[in-house]
Amino acid sequence: MENIEKDRIKKAYLDYVLRKGTPPASVFQLTSKLKIQEADFYRSYPNFDAIDREIWADFAREARQQAAKEPVWEQYGAREKLLGFYYTLLEMLKQNRSYALQSLRQSLKRMPGLTPRVLDDFRQDFEVFVQDILQEGKRKDEVAVRPLLQDQYPRFFWQQALFVLGFFAKDESLNFERTDAAVEKAVTLSFDLVGRNTLDSALDFARFLVQRR
Amino acid sequence: MEETPGVEPAAGNLTGSRILVSLPTTKVARAARFAKTGLKVGANYVKHYAKRAAGVTSETDDLHAANAAELYGTLSEMKGSVLKVAQMLAMEKNMLPTAYADQFAQAQYQSPPLSGPLVTKVFREAFGRSPFEVFDEFDINARQAASIGQVHFARKDGKALAVKVQYPGVADSIRSDIRLVKPIALRVMGLDEAQVRPYLEEVETRLLEETNYALELQRGTEIAAQCAHLAHLEFARYYPEYSTNRVLTMDWLTGQHLKEFLATSPTQEIRNQLGQALWDFYAFQMHTLHRVHADPHPGNFLLRADAGGTVGVLDFGCVKEIPADVYELFTALLTAEALADETRLADLLTQADVLRPDDAPTRRAFYINTMQASLELVGRPFRQHTFDFGDPAYMTALYALGDDLMQQPELRQQREPRGSEHFIYLNRTYVGLYALLTELRAVVRTERK
């Protein structure tokens, strides 16, 4: 029962933002439209920002679930899974492009480089997902085991996600084609970095020289 | 045995892991690469002049070769469209010193293959379904890299299909690369922008057309239907229901590329029949359709020995439509009459913008002489009933002609290209066709019926 109400409020809010381009001026404005008590709203959400956060978290969760439905998903390595996630996410953002662009452009402008508050819940979901695929990547030797450093990977990948979202928000190419290319290249690069590469050999060599003494 | 369709062989292999060469992607990075090359090329010139001042004889060819190597090194680190522009320029040997031309001829497009998820995404966008749902069978690993996309193998209702998927944002990237490369390339090659503009526009138009798969489907289907009556040719059928601007689905043709085919030592009869099929194909397009498949690269033809020799034609991405007046001019230039009658030749060359009214008489005479020599050689197959492309003397003479022309001080100093811009792709077509026929060592009936 409560969830149905929550969904209704979320939909009405989204609808309002799409129509007017800004969040409603007050909670009362929205609840009167929905013909419910203001108190009903506060039972579901503390404020509008919370709805924004939830909408973004929904994007992340649905993108993950959708991407996993692909018949070849199980054959994908970690790199492809992350790519699959991004492409599905972008697809969903495109379907809600007015909302997504408005919300991204607003919050990314305010704090470049930092994680906007609206993406807090999105981030949690995303980092869990990245942890999972990196674990799997390690089993399949796609990701190098690097104690200490690897704890920072989720944060590193989150920066990548922010880059992708920022690129999407600023992309002016037809059908966001340049974002596709950006995702492809960014993910390839990141997996080249977390995979076994020159860095590991250099560290190994350095360790060997130090140990000999 | 199944062979690869529609594409030029890629330098790297697609199976397994592919080594990624560093690819500067941002405009700034690319511009930086160019700036660096500009400096190095400049340094080569300084060395050259320093040597000359010191009385050391330095061959200008060495200098060109050094510059070309420098440029090529840079270009091969960059995305392919730049290389394609370079390749196009290289075709017009008149426009560039030979050293540049030779280096550019090696240029190959290098781009990492599209990931599985992106291919899936392109399909979802285009058809609302993943390729595994669209086709009965789909190989997510590309079989071959094409210049602006990659080719996947698929099967539907028992039919083997080739599915070409385009890299995202290729058209945009070609546009920006052209803007980026043009000023620097022009400077390095000592050309004037205003004078080469029509030529570059022609090349740019063709390059961008190649990114339009819908256009390729339409032209490929039309030309295949119009050429259906020609013997020993095979065309892939295109499937509009599985094609969009970025996805092109066609029959998977079988056969071997020229090199592998020749390695099977086919008989002279088979080689003649293949050569004849190619010649008839081009003659028909030229004289009847007035538009030609303008990319007779060996990778675009699949050869088979069955039925005495069959040619599979692939890739209608580059098609040159020939305006009526250009067609008249082009064919007139190849006739025996034009060659014999100097005033007629001068008249035709003026129409073609090779001769200009304000040219000095000596210059005029020089142009007429060189053009006469080239046309005599290049047009020779057109003036005979049958022509033996296997005659090694002929190809040697053709290459020698090119070298000779470059030795002419008048041509070397010439910094303005001449002739109609439509001739770029006509020349490319015939150069490609002659190269194929000489490799095949085919004897061909060249007389027009």
TrEMBL record, chain A:
Residues 81-209 form the Tetracyclin repressor-like C-terminal domain. Pfam families: TetR_C_23. It comes from the Bacteria. InterPro entries: Tet_transcr_reg_TetR-rel_C_sf, TetR_C_23. This is TetR/AcrR family transcriptional regulator.
TrEMBL record, chain B:
GO terms for molecular function: ATP binding; protein kinase activity. PROSITE patterns: PROTEIN_KINASE_DOM. Residues 137-449 form the Protein kinase domain. Gene3D superfamilies: Transferase(Phosphotransferase) domain 1. It holds the Pfam family ABC1. Coiled coil: none annotated. Signal peptide: none annotated. Keywords: Kinase, Transferase. PANTHER family: AARF DOMAIN-CONTAINING PROTEIN KINASE 1, ABC1 FAMILY PROTEIN. This is AarF/ABC1/UbiB kinase family protein. It comes from Hymenobacter elongatus.
